[in-house]
């Protein structure tokens, strides 16, 4: 089953970083968050990726074209341009990089990679989210329910504090917890290829018309995940993920090297 990653947006809410590179190339622990996402999928046996590029997509393409040199120690003999690799990455990945347009909406990006989907089902996620979802259980859930689409739903941490008020008096000031929040789309989806019929053109926002229609027709299942999930939406999110990585045991890291 192939994994489609949406990596073409402008990332305006983290513009401190995204003005220089696309959001999926922003680094956590010296590696693009896109790399972390792919390593996570790969740890469950999903090794084929389709990356939907857009804004500054050439930087993503360059990263994979030069992946070995970026991630290896090597000796180069400048006189004859001989290159000897000393540490070669062992990722068993097949990566298809597709320019899906600069201003294309999420649905349009998915529609543009339809020709690369050659099985009944495929996986889809965003290029800025990390989690500890059991991906094999997610796929089993999708197959068991037989719906057109399955979305991993999560309860995010709140961004603002909660005020408890009684009789016009504040009685407590606390951080908003996940229990104060409803379920949201956390990405990490499994889709049947019939979903392409629900996407009209480049202007289609996948999270609107296609998914709303699927929900109305009772073809959209929710895989509830109560574990770790975080979207790198802002600079603060990036800093939190960096601190997690620095502990040596970030919640999403389930691979050895």
Overview of this structure, please?
Residues 2-225 form the Nucleotidyl transferase domain. Its EC number is 2.7.7.33. With 257 residues, this protein is of the alpha/beta class. The protein has a domain at 3-133 and 188-205 and 229-246: Spore Coat Polysaccharide Biosynthesis Protein SpsA, Chain A, CATH 3.90.550. The chain is built from eight helices and 16 strands. It has helices spanning 15-18, 33-43, 57-65, 67-70, 106-112, 135-145, 209-216, 235-246, and strands at 3-7, 27-28, 31-32, 48-53, 74-77, 82-85, 94-99, 121-126, 129-131, 149-154, 161-166, 169-175, 184-185, 189-192, 220-224, 229-231. Strand 2 and strand 3 (31-32) form a beta hairpin. It is globular.
Can you lay out the helices and strands and say which pair or pack?
Elements: E1 3-7, H1 15-18, E2 27-28, E3 31-32, H2 33-43, E4 48-53, H3 57-65, H4 67-70, E5 74-77, E6 82-85, E7 94-99, H5 106-112, E8 121-126, E9 129-131, H6 135-145, E10 149-154, E11 161-166, E12 169-175, E13 184-185, E14 189-192, H7 209-216, E15 220-224, E16 229-231, H8 235-246
Parallel strand pairs: 1-4, 1-8, 4-7, 10-15
Antiparallel strand pairs: 2-3, 5-6, 8-14, 9-16, 10-13, 10-14, 11-12
